[in-house]
């Protein structure tokens, strides 16, 4: 059985295609940012979360995540994620450093 990954917003088609090869994915298609009530429900069912800078992933959300192994944010920064608490719960956190280019 494939691990479950939840995306708080869609990604490019090529990225989704790669994810679908390995994981059972679900994509939030409603209001952005995802309402905390929906995130609280989804976080209990998943193994991985792909989020964005406007999604607050705090201690309360992490506490609900019984099977969560990884949180990945589609951003350079990660201050919207309680990384210290995630580490304490043995949840890995990924982000995209140095993805931006310098203006010329």
Walk me through this protein's architecture.
This protein is of the alpha/beta class and 104 residues long. The chain has helices at 13-22, 36-42, 59-64, 83-88, and strands at 3-7, 23-27, 48-51, 70-73, 92-94. The chain has a domain at 31-98: NAD(P)-binding Rossmann-like Domain (Rossmann fold, 3-Layer(aba) Sandwich), CATH 3.40.50. The protein has four helices and five strands, in the order βαβαβαβαβ. It has a five-stranded parallel β-sheet with strand order 2-1-3-4-5. Helix 3 (59-64) links the parallel strand 3 and strand 4 (70-73). The longest helix has 10 residues, at 13-22. The chain is globular, with a radius of gyration of 14 Å. This is D-glycerate dehydrogenase. Pfam families: 2-Hacid_dh (PF00389). It comes from Marine Group I thaumarchaeote.
């Amino acid at each position: 059985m494939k691990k479950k990954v939840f995306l708080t917003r869609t990604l490019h088609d090529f990225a989704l295609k790669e994810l679908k090869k390995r994981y059972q994915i679900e994509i939030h298609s409603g209001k952005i940012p995802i309402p905390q009530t929906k995130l609280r429900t989804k976080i209990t069912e998943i193994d991985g979360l792909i989020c964005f800078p406007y999604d607050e992933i705090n201690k309360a959300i992490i506490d609900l995540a019984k099977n969560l192994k990884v949180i990945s944010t589609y951003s350079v920064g990660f201050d919207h994620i309680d990384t210290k608490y995630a580490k304490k719960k043995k949840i890995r956190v990924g982000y995209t450093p140095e993805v931006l280019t310098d203006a010329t």
